[in-house]
Fold:
Amino acid sequence: MRYAIIADIHANLAAFTAVLADIDQRGGMDEIWCLGDVVGYGPDPHQCIELLRQHNHVCVAGNHDWAAVGKLNLAEFNPDAAAACRWTAQQLTPEDIDYLENLPLVIEKDDFTLLHGSPREPIWEYLISVSSAKENFVYFHSQFCLVGHSHVPLVFRLNETGACSFSQFSANIGLVLARSRLIINPGGVGQPRDGDPRASYAILDSETGMVRLYRVAYDIGVTQASMVRHNLPIRLVSRLSYGM
Ligand code: ZN
Structure:
């Protein structure tokens, strides 16, 4: 089976569409595993939910998904994120709201645990350091965990001696799933933050036991023009150009 691992679409339809086209070009997939934050920041929340739901998929809740339907207090957000969230809430249909409200926090699939932030705090914690990742390996029981939230493609590895290390998850290099336990972040589709503005996602091939990361160029200008048209915060518009 082939699974597309995607995170942090963030209402960026141009990026999401480009990723889906890239998946098709690479032979397609059986199921999308979406790691949350379908909405927030970007200009196409309804369209992204609708497009995701047209595909065979599972999806966990992210902080922006919860905030858009009032399950999180906006006081926890910075002013730009809060402004975008208030706008997002006005764009959602009753079906969209129902969908976001009912997203689970954690999904277990075979050897994988799927969630947005961290096993310890699925909505809020960013896994960007070895120390926090190491603490989190006791909070899930499967061999592998897939996370989003930081929008940075990373792999944390807990080897058999109990030591934890991390590496950047580079495009086109196969990550072999072997004995070590791993926490894997496929990067962000709709708002990458590792300095590369291209959309980021991964494909898991369960037959070969490999996960491979891909970067996909998309028309950033289309998304930015739409954000400007909807008066979304300018800092959110410009950061897409830099992948930061
Ligand atoms: Zn996010």
